[in-house]
């Protein structure tokens, strides 16, 4: 097996990557693995992240070696089990085929560029990351920002004065339903504070279940009658409602953010202090800061500030304060974005991630 090491291929990669990241402040390093295979047969259970790691040292380089545009990054429903991904070493590109051939120079070998599949769109397509890990986070209102709570319908009374409601129980609700009939019920939790500014940037909401409208308020009244459709946790008086349409799994290709992002880890989901691989964290940057689904950030432990006892002291006799370099510890795949907050799944990690750690654009 040949290694990807020719000068010409490296120049090709550099050119491709420059085109794909024209908006970035500096070109990113994008190289194939020294042990990259000539081909990979896609099997059920593969993810784009896994396949990227077979060929590339950095999975977020995937769009570069395919020469993809933004539309293709956002709609990667073109890789299916049974297809073959070829490593074209001469051009430093990956190609997609539906059958095994004698070699990349054989014109009879079917080689396809990534494209949107027109029949059965998305069905059985290889996902970006394991969907089961993040599915509960796609439809539940887990982050509440700004004044989103203001004016939200709320439970004011329960059936027969019960303290908590269960499935099938009645709940009495006040508030503007805005022509919606199905609602999710949540209870605001602890505030999320920016680790840098210490300002509250949102609230993590506890998802309790769903309510279905039974009877809308009659003329002269503003009290609606609901029935509990599902109850994940106990809900009761004071809990709030929010109509949120289901959010489908967005299958973006792993890619760097469209502009430089420098974020901090705000919280580890579940209230713990440290996170490992396949755990979820929130960061203090969102869609208004240039993040979208599929954006990949590198995770770092923030370098400590130490006293340099070996250097020259100030005229006050104080030692100089020096910040140590940030230490890279892993990578973060952004799968849900709010205005100024995002959820990310830790993909790889060499040390536990904690609140205050740095998450920034790949270098």
Automatic annotation (TrEMBL):
Asked if Kinase is a keyword of the record, the answer is no
Extract the signal peptide range. Answer: 1-25
Q: Which UniProt keywords apply?
A: Signal
InterPro entries to which the protein is assigned, alphabetical: Bact_Kbp (IPR052196), LysM (IPR018392), LysM_dom_sf (IPR036779)
Source organism of this protein record: Duganella rivi
Q: What is this protein called?
A: LysM peptidoglycan-binding domain-containing protein
Cell cycle among the record's keywords?
Answer: no
Which CDD domains does the UniProt record give? LysM
LysM domain residues are: 38-87
């Amino acid at each position: 097996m040949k290694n990807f090491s020719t000068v010409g291929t490296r120049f090709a990669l550099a050119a491709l990557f420059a085109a794909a990241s024209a908006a970035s402040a500096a070109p990113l390093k994008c190289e194939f693995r020294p042990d990259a295979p000539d081909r990979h047969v896609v099997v059920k259970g593969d993810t784009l992240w896994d396949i990227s790691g077979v060929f590339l040292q950095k999975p977020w380089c995937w769009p570069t070696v395919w020469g993809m545009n933004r539309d293709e990054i956002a709609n990667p429903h073109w890789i299916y089990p049974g297809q073959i991904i070829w490593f074209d070493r001469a051009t430093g590109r990956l190609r997609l085929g539906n059958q095994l051939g004698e070699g990349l120079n054989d014109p009879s070998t079917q080689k396809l560029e990534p494209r949107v599949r027109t029949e059965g769109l998305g069905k059985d397509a290889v996902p970006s990351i394991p969907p089961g890990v993040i599915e509960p986070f796609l439809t539940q209102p887990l982050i509440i920002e700004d004044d989103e709570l203001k004016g939200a319908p709320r439970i004011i009374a329960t059936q027969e004065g019960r303290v908590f409601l269960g499935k099938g129980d009645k709940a009495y609700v006040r508030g503007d339903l805005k022509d919606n009939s199905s609602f999710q019920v949540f209870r605001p939790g602890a505030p999320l504070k920016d680790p840098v500014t210490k300002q509250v940037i949102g609230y993590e909401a506890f998802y309790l279940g769903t309510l279905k409208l039974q009877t809308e308020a009659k003329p002269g009244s503003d009290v609606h009658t609901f029935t509990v459709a599902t109850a994940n946790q106990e809900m009761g008086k004071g809990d709030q409602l929010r109509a949120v349409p289901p959010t489908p799994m967005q299958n973006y290709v792993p890619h760097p953010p469209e502009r430089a992002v420098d974020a901090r880890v705000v919280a580890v989901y579940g209230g713990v202090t440290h996170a490992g691989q396949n755990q979820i964290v929130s960061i203090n940057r969102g869609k208004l800061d240039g993040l979208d689904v599929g954006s990949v950030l590198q995770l770092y432990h923030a370098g400590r500030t130490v006293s340099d006892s070996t250097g020259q002291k100030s005229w006050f006799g104080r030692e100089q304060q020096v910040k140590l370099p940030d230490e890279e510890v892993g990578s973060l795949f952004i799968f849900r974005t709010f205005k100024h907050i995002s959820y990310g799944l830790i993909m790889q990690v060499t040390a536990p991630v904690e609140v205050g750690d740095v998450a920034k654009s790949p270098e």
